[in-house]
Amino acid sequence: MIIGFGSDPNACELRATLMAHAATLGHTAVDYGSDDPIYAHTAINVARAVVGKEVDRGVLLCGTGIGVSIAANKVPGAYCALVSDVYQARRAQLSNSANLIAMGAQVTGAEVAKCLLEEYLGQTFDPRSRSAEKVAAIVEFEHGETA
């Protein structure tokens, strides 16, 4: 898989660590930075790359992960899940078909973040799963259909 990575300046070290870890797992890491203190710019750029199929999935980092997840989710077609434990990382893909995840560099240690990344990248959403109808309802609402 090709994975886009972006962060604010506070999370540069964790971004580099996760990009290297993704490579050891056989994935291609694409670096979207950022030196930009406005994390929304980077989050939106990565989300657009995911939605535009330039990359397969995205990983976003800021201090808490909250800001980048909110920003990414403003891009139509971007579904970013904030993850802080392995179960959330697994279910982000299995239950929610999240095409991006976010983590907080100030609240998640590097070794835990590597586990979260590995779990997330190891999952594939099954469109026939019991969650498919729930995901479809989110997509329908996004496209202006009533839920």
What's the pLDDT, averaged over the residues?
95
Residues in β-strands, percent? 15-25%
Structural class: alpha/beta
Query: Percent of residues in helical segments?
Result: 40-55%
CATH homology group? Sugar-phosphate isomerase, RpiB/LacA/LacB
Observed structural traits:
globular, 147 residues, 44% helix, Ribose 5-phosphate Isomerase B, Chain: A, 16% strand, alpha/beta, five-stranded parallel beta sheet
Polypeptide structure, described:
- The chain is an alpha/beta fold.
- The protein has one domain: Ribose 5-phosphate Isomerase B, Chain: A (3-Layer(aba) Sandwich).
- The chain is built from six helices and five strands.
- It has a five-stranded parallel β-sheet, sandwiched between helices.
- Helix 1 (12-24) links the parallel strand 1 (2-7) and strand 2.
- It is globular and about 40 Å long.
- The termini are far apart.
